[in-house]
Amino acid sequence: MTLLPFTKHYETPERAAGAVRHYRWIKEHAKPLRQPALHEIGPASLAFERVEGRSVHPEDLPRMAKLLGHAHGAAWHSDLQSASLGTPHQFNDGTPFDDYLGTREIALWRRHEQGYLPNKAALYAMLRLLEETAQGPLAFYKDSNPRNFIITAAGDIVTVDTDDLSIAPMGYDLAKLIATLHLTYGPLTDQAVNAALCAYNTAAGCYGSRLDATNRGRLDDFLALHAVLTAPYVGRNGYRWPLRSHLRGTP
């Protein structure tokens, strides 16, 4: 039986065009990530090959961490070696990547206004932490939450949803996956987190000598940022377990 394509609709043609741009960049530069075939591009919709399966579970974390390490390492080797946080990086059509610092600075100010950061001291602590993490070899961020991957009955991992793509430090998107697994299924053990980080670093290190340097302290910094940035989504999209920051004065 042939499955009907999955059609995703976007609010604007620009959002649809951005998703296509991201899809094509991942296909060219992050080859370890398998994506469904893109069948049709409409004015504000995209039709993809339909893939049946389930979302990521905590027991999948070691495989997922290895996959992300390979994807980030491959992208660095293919396109991001010359990228830096201080210089705009561009897609093939000249469109710039979203940057790491600017978009998240805006988001942190918004979280303060929304009440997720209780005072200016907490906000400034998070802004300092964000700036401290803006270093090292660059990878990309594609919002690696459990729903953005499909694990088929055969055990294949398929990457879906290319709406968001930005420059980010190595390990940042791994932290997003760990954070959202916690939000969905409850706290992960330190052993599971450390094993995932080891798998990630080992895979990323295959592509460059400096790509395996994300340590647990830096991963925890990323998790603290994600705790604040994802706070408004607790209670939505299956996020049932609050992820609390280790920084004093933050949620």
UniProtKB/TrEMBL annotation:
Residues 11-198 form the Aminoglycoside phosphotransferase domain. InterPro entries: Aminoglycoside_PTrfase, Kinase-like_dom_sf. This is Phosphotransferase.
